Amino acid sequence: MIRLPSRKFKTAAADGRQSALFLEGQFAPTAAHSLIHSFTLSLFHSLLMTPPRLADRLLTWFCAPHLREDVLGDLHERFALRAAREGVGRARRQYWRDVLAYVRPEFIRRPEKPHIDDYPVPNQVLMFRNHVKIALRSLKRHKVYTSLNVAGLAFGLTCFLLIGLYLFDELTFDQQHSRQARIYRAIQHKKTPADEVTVAASSYNISEQAPRQISEVENTARLVRLGRANITNPANKHAFQETVTLGNKGLLAVFDFETLDGNGKAALDEPNSVVMTEEFAQRLFQTSDVVGKTVFLDFIPDKALKITAVLKNHPRNSSFDFTYVLSEETLKGLPRFEQQTADWLSQSYQTFFLLKEQADPVATANKINTLLNANAKPEAGTSVSYALQPLADMHLHSQHITDGARNGNVQSMATGTLLYLRIFAIVALFVLLIACINYMNLATARAANRAKEIGVRKASGAFRSHLIGQFLTESLVVTVIAFVLAVLVVNLLLPAFNEFTNKALSLGLRTDYRIWLLAVTALVLTSLLSGSYPALLLSRFSPLLLLKSVRFSNRRDLSLRKSLVVFQFAISVVMMVATIVLYRQVRYANNKDLGFNKELLLVVDINSGKVRNGAATIQAEFSKLPAVKQVSVTSRVPGEWKNIPLVKIKQDGSTQEPKTAYILGVDEAFNKTFAVQLLKGRTFAGLSDSSSVILNETAAKALNINEPSDQLIDIPAMAFGGSFMPVYETNQSFKARVIGIVKDFHFQSIREKIAPMVLAYQRNPVTNIDYFTSRIDGHDIPATLAAMNHIMTGIDPDHLLEYHFLDDQLALFYQEDQRRETMLIWVSLATIFIACLGLFGLATYAAEQRIKEIGVRKVLGASTFSLTALLSGDFLKLVLIANAIAFPVAWWATNKWLEEFAYHIEVEWWMFLVSGIAAIFIALLTVSYQAIKAATVNPVKSLKSE
Amino acid sequence: MRRSDLGEFEEVVLLTVAALSPGAYSVAIAEELEQETGRPVSTGAVHAALQRLEQKGYLRSEMGEATAERGGRRKRFFTVTALGGRVLNEVHDVRTRLWDRIVPTIRLEWR
Hints:
The complex is a heterodimer.
Chain A: H1 12-27, H2 35-49, H3 53-62, H4 68-86, H5 88-101, H6 105-108, H7 124-141, H8 143-171, E1 183-191, E2 196-199, H9 204-213, E3 217-233, E4 238-247, H10 250-254, E5 259-262, E6 273-277, H11 278-285, E7 294-297, E8 305-311, E9 324-327, H12 335-341, E10 350-355, H13 361-375, E11 383-390, H14 418-445, H15 447-459, H16 464-501, H17 513-538, H18 543-547, H19 555-591, E12 601-605, H20 609-613, H21 615-624, E13 628-634, E14 646-651, E15 659-666, H22 670-674, E16 678-681, E17 692-696, H23 697-702, E18 712-715, E19 717-719, E20 725-726, E21 734-742, E22 757-761, E23 771-776, H24 781-795, E24 803-805, H25 806-813, H26 815-849, H27 851-859, H28 864-898, H29 909-936, H30 939-944
Parallel strand pairs in A: 4-9, 6-8, 15-22, 17-21
Antiparallel strand pairs in A: 1-2, 1-10, 1-11, 3-4, 3-7, 3-10, 5-8, 6-9, 7-8, 12-23, 12-24, 13-23, 14-15, 14-18, 14-19, 16-21, 17-22, 18-21, 19-20
Chain B: H1 8-20, H2 26-37, H3 43-56, E1 59-67, E2 73-80, H4 82-110
Antiparallel strand pairs in B: 1-2
C-alpha cells in the first residue's frame, strides 16, 4: 500500500486510521475467514497490535506539524521492531516513554516560516504578490497587447475623470452655504391674456412681508442688479464700470459668503455700506485691506459709501457673481425707490426665503399666494402666483425661468443645462464601458495563447479561484497603470479643458475627497469589469482540454464582439457626419450675407449721461478721424448682445390686434454706416423726422404696407425684456409716419427668423441712444481707439472707453455651436479610437483562429495579397453594416439640430460619403496590420504544431 | 576550531551516522546505540541531536522511500557533510594524541 504524500491525509486522526488499516491489511485474514473472525481480529489488532492511539494523539497535538511525519514514522517503526522483539505490551509501554521524550522545545516550537517540506498553505498576501509578479511578467512579454490595453483603458479613464470632474462641479453648485437645504428662491408665474412668463423674482412687498406674516419663513435675502455704474476710489480716482448689485441685510444672513475682513453678517445693515469681493478690492485699491475706506458711485454722487466687509471670491460653482453689493438701506427714502417698491405685483427683486426647519415649501408657497391675493388685485385676465425653487435646483433646473430682477444691460445669471450633463454622463460611462469591453475582447482573443499556461496551472493544483484571482490581478495591474497614466493626462489636459468649459477644475492632492473616492471606485470597478469575463471564461475549461490544445471557439462570443464593433463604428460615423454638418453650419452662419456689412464696424458704448448729451459733438469729432468712414448713433446694433426692446404696432385706425416688433433708435447715417439697403422711400433727414419710422420688409408685410407714404402707425406699448407697458404714462400711443422700407437684415442670431423691425429716429419716446458705430479702415486700430477715447474724455473726464467689433460679437452667437463642434470633434475622435481598438482585438482574434486555414491556403498557392484581402474583407462587411445603420440616424439627428436655425444649410449626400469612406479607410488601416502579419507567416510554422 | 559546540551525545550520534552510512536514519541509529551501549536510547533524543547537527551543518538529510513499518511514512536519511567529517577527524585526532601521551604511563604502572 503506497501512500501519496498528500497533506490532506496528514491530519492527526487520519494518521491513526491509516496505520490501523495498514496493519489490518498486513495481518488480516483473507476473504475465506468468517466475517466475525475478521472483525474480532481487527478489533484485537487495532487495540493491541498498534501503538497506543492516545499517545499518537498527544504527539500530534504538541509536535510541530512539519516534524510529524519523521517523528511518527520513527516511533511506529520502532514500535514494530520492539513488538516483534519483546512483545506488544512492552513495546506499548516503551512507546509512551518514547513519545514523552519528544516533549522538548525543538519539537514543540512551530516554524516561523512554512517549512519547505511542509505543503505551504498560501496566504492571501503571498498569492497576491505572486499574481502581481506573474502579471507583470506576462505584460512585459506581450508589449503590444499591454500597450493597447493600457492605452485603451487610460483613454477611457481620462474621459471618465475629466467628465466626472465637470459633472461633480456642476452638481455641487451653490452647496457651499450651510443652510442651503432650507433656502428657496421665489419664482413668480404671471399669466396675461397675451403671454405667460415665469420669472425668478418677486415684488419688494412679498419679500419684505413674508417673514413677518408667514410663520414658516425665517428670513429673506433680496437682491437686484441695477445695471452698470462707475464706482470710484476717491484716493486715486480709479474708476470701474461694474454691475451694481443692491442687497438687503438678509442677503448676508441667509447665505454664508466667506468673509475675509469685516463683519460678514451685519455688513449691509447700515445705509451707505458697500461689501465687495477680494478680487474687486484688489482691482480698485490694489489691496484687500479696505474695510473702512470710502468709495463713490456716479448715480448717487453725494453719498460717501463705506466699505464694511470684504468677501472671498465666489467659488466657481456658485451662481452668484456680484463683485460688490450696495446696502438697500442706502436707497431707502429716495422717491424712485419708494415708487418701485410700492407695487405688490412687480418682479423687481431676486428673492430667497430661508424657511424654518421642516417647513413644507409647497405649503409656504401657498401662504405666500394668500398673502399676495390679500394685498393686490391683478387686472382682469391676469393672474400672478408664486412657487418656491430649492437653491440646489437653481443652477440646473432653471431653463424655463427668466432671470428677472435685473436691468436690461446686465447679463442674466449663468445656468447649466441638465440635458448636456446627462449626455456627458452617458458619454463618460459609455467610453469607459467600451474600453473595458475592448480589454475583455483582447484578453479572450489571447486565450488560445494562454491555454497551455492555464492548463499547467490547473494540472499542478491551482483551484479555479486562483486562476480567477490571477486574471483579476492582471487586469488590476493594467488598470492601475492606466489610471496613473490617466491622472497624468488629465492634469496635462485640465488647463485646456478649463478654458473650454470655463471652470477651475483640478485633480490633485487638494481635490475634494469625494472625487478621489469616485476615481478609486471607478478604478476598482473598471478592473473588475474588464477582468471578470476573461477570468471566468478562461478558468472554466478543463485542464485536459487546454493541454491537448483543442481550439475552443465560441460562436456566440464572436457575434457579440462583431455587433459591438458594428455599434462602435456606427457611432463613429454618426459623430463624423455631425461634425461635418456642424462645421459647415457654423461657417455658413459666420459667412452668411446678413443684410448689412459686419466687417470693420467698431461699436463704442455710451456709458454716461454727459456723453449721451454730447453725442452730436462726439459724432462730429469721430467722423473727422482719418480712419473713420462713417459714424452712426443708435440705441442698439444689429447683432446686439443686450435686450432689444419690443413694441406693439398697428396701422392707425385699424381694428386688428397689434403686432409685436423690435425697435431700434437710429440716426441719418445708419443705412450708410451699416450698409443696409433702402428699398423704398427715404431715410431720416434730421430732427424733423423724430416721429417718423422706417420699417423692414417683414414689418411692412405684417402691416400690409406696400409703399411708404407717410401713413400713420400706432405704437401703444413697449417692453424691455419684461411685460409690455404703455409708451406714455398718459396711456396715449406714439404715432409715427412711415417714410421708408429697408431690406431685411439679421439683427439677431440666424437661429431666429427675421422678425418685424421698426427703425425709429434716435430721439423717440421708446429708446435712448447707447452706441456710436463707426465704419473704419483696418489700419492702426489702437491709434483710432486712442483718438476716440481722447474725444470722449474731452466731454466726460470720467468716461470709460468700452468697445466691441461687431463681427466678433456676431460670432458669439455661434460660440456655443463652435464649442459643440470642438466637443464633437473630440468625441468622434474618441469613439473612432476606441472602435479601432475593438476592431484590432477582433482582427487579432480572427487571425489567431484562422492561422491553420491561412497556412493551408498558402500551401495551396494563395498570395499574400489575396489572403490580406480575405481577412480584411470580413471586417469591411462590419463597417459597411455600421454605415448602413449610421446614415439614417445621422440624417435624422443633424436635420433635427438644423431645424433650430431659421436659416441653415442642407444635409448633403457627400457628407455621408466622406464619413463612410473615412470609417472604412480607418478600419482597413487597423485590420491590415494583423491581416498582413497573418498572411506573411511561414505556413511551415503554423502547420507543424498541433 | 569549533570543537566546543559538539556535545558528547552529538559526537556519538555523528560517529554512528558515519558508521551506518549510507543507511543512517534515526531508528537505525537509536537501535545501534542501544546495542552498543546497552542502555535505552529514545528516538526523541537521537532526533533532537540529528536536528542540531544538521543545523550546524555537520549532517545533510534527504527523504527516502516510504515503508510499511512506518505506516507509509518516509524515512529521513542522514549523511555526514565534509564539515562534519573534518570535525570528526579533529575530535579523533585530539583523543588519539591524548591517548598517545598516557599509554606509556599506564604500561609503566602495570609493570
